[in-house]
Amino acid sequence: MPSDPLFIIVILAVLAVVVVLMVGLGGFAGGGAFNKRNGNKIMRLRIIAQFIAVLLILGYIYFRKDAG
């Protein structure tokens, strides 16, 4: 599994979602000008990243169900 390129892409997509989420939560917790300026943009980016990650996960399941 770890040597499968699609699996690696899925893991990278999930990690990207985690990074964007942590940046957004950190900005929200800190408040201030950064959050006012970037809060909505970061959360929109998180939603897009989650959508891509879910599509990749579904694609991985679909393409690997016959290989097993």
TrEMBL record:
Q: Which InterPro entries does the UniProt record give? A: Hypoxia_induced_domain
At the top level, the lineage of the source is Bacteria
Asked if the keyword Membrane belongs to this entry, the reply reads yes
Transmembrane stretches in the record are 6-33, 45-63
UniProt entry keywords in alphabetical sequence: Membrane, Transmembrane, Transmembrane helix
The record, for NCBIfam families, names: twin_helix (NF033233)
Identification of the protein by name: Uncharacterized protein
Q: Whose protein is this, by species?
A: Sulfitobacter mediterraneus
Q: What lineage is this protein's organism placed in?
A: Bacteria, Pseudomonadati, Pseudomonadota, Alphaproteobacteria, Rhodobacterales
